[in-house]
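Hey team,

Filing this mostly as a record. A colleague (T.K.) asked me to run one chain through the structure pipeline before their review meeting, and I want the input and output archived in the tracker in case anyone asks later how it was produced. No errors, nothing strange. Just documentation.

Input sequence:
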Amino acid sequence: MKQMRRTTASLLTGAVVVALVGACAGARPALATVAVFQFVWAWTDFLRPLIYLNDSSQYTLSIGLYSFFSEHGVDWGPLMAASVIFTIPVLVVFLLGQRYFVEGVATTGLK
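Output structure:
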């Protein structure tokens, strides 16, 4: 009897997963867009880590970029090099999600 309950529960769980996957198939471009925006927001966040982190060894990259500014001027060369390196993961995430953006735009007007 316990085995039958487990089998029934696992079948119902599988059916729920299949239903969710089917329902989310149309929402995939929107979910990809939200995921990319969330990644960019978290990656470039400056104020919250500045408030929460006290140890300078745990600072995020955006706070690290701010360290190139000093009282005596800005170290422009290293700042620009670090900015390019800081931008590369955002570009990679965008390029991986670009096909979902195009899919969302292409299927917007279809019924």
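Quick notes for T.K.: DSSP finds five helices and two strands in the chain. The CA atoms of residues 12 and 18 lie 10 Å apart.
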